[in-house]
Amino acid sequence: GIEEHFILLQVIESYLVNSYAKDDNGQQTVRLWMSSWIQKIASSESPPNYMSNKMAQLFALVFAADFPIRWPQFMQEVFLQQLDSPAVVVFFLRTLMAIDSEVVDREIQRTKEVFDRNTHIKDAMRDLCIVDVARVWTTILKDSGNDKARELCLDVVACYVDWIDIELVVNDTMVPLIIGCLNDENASESAVRAICAIIEKGMDAQKKFALVSALSMLLQQNGSLSVTPGNDAEEVMRSGMLLSAIGCALIDCHVKFDKNNETARRSDCDRLLEGTLTPALQCFSNEDLDTSQTVVEFLRQYICMLKGEPLSAQNEAFISELVARIVHRYKAPEDINLENDGENELDFLEYRKQLRSLLSTVGTLKPDIIVNSLEPSVRSLCGEWTHSEVAPIEAVLSLIYSLAEIIQSTFIMSSDDVSTRAKSLILQVLSSDVSRCGAFVVNTTFFEIVCRYDRLLAANQRPLPSLLEAFLDARGLLHPSARLRTRVVYLFCRFVKAHKQSLGDYVGTVLTQLAPLLAVNPNANSLFSDDDQMFLYEATSTLIVFGSLKVELKEQYTKELAGSLLQKFLAANEELCKVTNSEDQQKILCYMCNIIGYSSRITKAFTTSNSMISCNCASTFYQIMNTYLEKVPVDSIEMLDALRQYLHRMVACFDEQLLPALPSIFNKFLSAASNHKTLHDFLILAQQIFAKLKSKVLNSELEVRTLFELLWSVHSSEHDLADEVVARNLCYLNRAYLQMILSIVVNDLLPLISNNGQGFMRRLSASILAFCTCSDTVAQKVALTAVAKLFSKLFNNGTIAFVESSVWEQSIITTLQVPLALSHDPADAQCVLVQHEASMCLQVLRMCLPERFDAVIHTILPSEVTEKISNYLRTLKGKELEKHMDELYAQLRVERITA
User: Fold this and answer.
1) Domains of the chain: which residue ranges?
2) How far, in Å, CA of 775 to CA of 150, rounded?
3) CA distance 607 to 101
4) Hey, how many other C-beta atoms are within 10 angstroms of the C-beta on 344?
5) Whole-angstrom Cα distance, residue 145 to residue 469?
6) Residue 474: what are its φ and ψ, rounded to 5°?
7) How far apart are CA 654 and CA 618, in angstroms?
8) Do 158 and 190 touch, CB atoms closer than 8 A?
9) Is residue 644 a contact partner of residue 681, using CB atoms and an 8 Å limit?
């Protein structure tokens, strides 16, 4: 059966890949197997394509292993003497394709050993067999009545011409045969690929120009470069591929002739190049996307070529025509519905990217031509959108959205003529009623334009009221499409934050319209998802905080907004106590998480100048925080996460007002610390608290000993490190633990740990030193930094406070051992950073007690090394210290290996 046959072939493939090259005894068996296959296909019906391709791959593996050393006559003996059978001819060509994949294909990553082997094989093929093989190509194209053989032969030529003598293919016999195949329906695509490969072959500019000139003349005579209305898409695509290859080759010649000051040759090149432009534009204008794409790269390269030269009237006329056609092609075809994410729609959007790239190239050369082309389109759009179809409206809006990419990105800040006209186009669109069209793609793009050009709107505020109205009605937040509402609510939040100072007079009206949208209910279907609702609350609070309202009204509105959430949270909490069904409980918990999230988003409106305190809202949010701290169940990881995010916001908004709540905050999370991720996230919160409040924390009666005891118990427990999630969470927890210690030290909070006594400090130091030698380089670096910062704080007036001298001595020994550990890889960038941190740490440790430091290192290192270390740490700093210590560590590692 087929499956059994394939399994046997896989066994053979494994042998050929792994063992055959070293097995001289197997060579005769393999040759017999190959001979039997050739005889089989010569005397019976051709095997299925998949079987022939697999066998060709195996023959190619034998060729790569045997040629030229063990089997220099491979081609002659296996194929060239047995080409009477059409089936053998086809298999021969398949094998040549497989050899190209195995030996030549540059897109396949290869080891240096294989690369060198392949280079040797290609050199040998040029010497021993490629001339004979090329003669067979000529015979096949001239005499074969087998369509498949002709097609494969042309594909082989396309693959091989890049590295063989060009004259084997470009000669009076072969070129007419290849060009003749352009008129063969079955072989035309392969013929195009072969001709393009010939044109693209690397060679001297003069030779390339002569080749391309000759081929262009023959192709013109053949009619292959002409595009007429009667051509179908496939014919135009073939012409486009040939024109693109010729055009790109001529551009390359132009550049080289220009560089070498070969004026006459460059003029000849330009004349030939100009002859390709009109048919290239005709190809570009073809309705078929794949056909149109064939010449995009050529057109882009041509525009790039014009950048360095004075533009003639003919050049400008061509660019204007090109831009006009790009703008026309930007419109989605009738069979494309951009509301969908189908394959055709994705292909069209990819095509549009290429059009934008082409326009962007024009924009760096002649941006005024782009603006000239868009001005009538925008006038028509703004005045006649009610009589227009969706596709042309969407196309113009998309081009306006992309103006920042198409012309210079700084045009918003510029005042030259082109920039002024471009800005006028945007303002015309934003001042129009085109969003009343209501189509998903039109309205989405319209609101995207609003937010992309927020700086332009900030300087030209007249459209703001109408834009605000558009956001709030059925064009935006109330649009029937849920997908559009999701995008628009995010854009609305951006819009409000960008223009918060300018929307103050509309706060009352806006709040009235937003109020129904803020009425969240776990049992009711909302227009918005839970995440969408976050943006609504953030936008609403921003309007309140920055609105033209008296402080009393800001206070009232904010309290109403936040207070309504608190009431809903408390009501949900009561409901949670009553329900027994786990599904209902989960639904309520999810709702309560969202409520906490909305409370957090409200606070994002507050800034240093418009703070909670200045709006008289601090007590409201403090009360909400205490309620959440009291009510959030410690067995719900999701709710604890939502609470933590709210507390992050409270730390950002409050100052010493937060101090009384710190013990409650710590106790809450310590009660739920069995989850490593929850504990990690809390340590990040603790760092934020310490960094914000600094020494003020010491007035909060905060007790951290319990937290450290809990962390140490995690460190001493066994963990299933084979579980990636467990290992990752533990890794992040350890890093956060070290970062928290560092935060305590650098923010003048040393009493938080030192007041727990020498025994505590001994355990803490041992814990940090253990991480100095762990396998995680990030944790190592932080641990070494923590050691240095800790002892710089503990040292005072010639003594080290709060820890025994043995701890300091052990820190020296451990730090010295870090760069000398077997796991330390000096070639790894992260390990180098750790090594540098160790040097800095040693310098700090030595500063504490220099003489005792020297005595300690003398006990573990040779005297000449200790003298160097002491000298470096005493006299050098920064990069110089790192350099000399690196050299010393390298020397010690070599001595260790030698020993």
Assistant:
1) 203-326, 798-899
2) 61
3) 62
4) 14
5) 72
6) -70, -5
7) 8
8) yes
9) yes
Share of the chain above pLDDT 90, in %: 89
Q: How far apart are the C-alpha atoms of 269 and 355, rounded to whole Å?
A: 27
545 contacts 568 by C-beta, under 8 angstroms: no
Determine contact, residues 445/402, Cβ cutoff 8 Å: no
- What pLDDT is stored for residue 899 in this prediction? 64
| Chain mean position to CA 125 | 42
Q: Are 277 and 226 in contact (CB under 8 A)?
A: no
**pTM of the full structure:** 0.87
Phi and psi dihedrals of 424, rounded to 5?
Answer: -60, -40
Give phi and psi for 796, each to the nearest 5.
-160, 125
Contact 842, 869 (CB under 8 A): yes
- Low-confidence stretches of the chain (pLDDT beneath 50): none
Burial of 166 (0-12, 13-18, 19+ CB in 10 A): middle
The CB-side HSE value for 776 (13 A sphere, CA atoms) comes to: 16
Instruction: Report the SS3 class of residue 50.
Output: helix
Residue range 402-459, pLDDT digits in tens: 999 999 878 999 999 999 999 999 999 999 999 999 999 999 999 999 999 999 999 9
From the list 86, 83, 88, 85, the residue with the least C-alpha distance to 59 is 88
Answer whether 187's CB lies under 8 Å from 150's CB.
yes
What φ, ψ does residue 84 adopt, rounded to 5°? Answer: -70, -30
**Buried/exposed code over 696-707 (b: 16+ C-beta within 10 A; e: otherwise):** bbbebebebeeb
Q: What is d(CA 434, CA 414) in angstroms, rounded to the nearest whole number?
A: 27
CB-CB contact of 280 with 247 (8 Å): yes
Segment 614-634, tens digit of pLDDT:
899 999 999 999 999 999 999
The CA–CA distances, whole Å, from 2 to 7, 36, 407, 770 equal: 9, 19, 59, 60
Distances 601 to 565, 594, 639 between C-alpha atoms, Å: 12, 10, 16
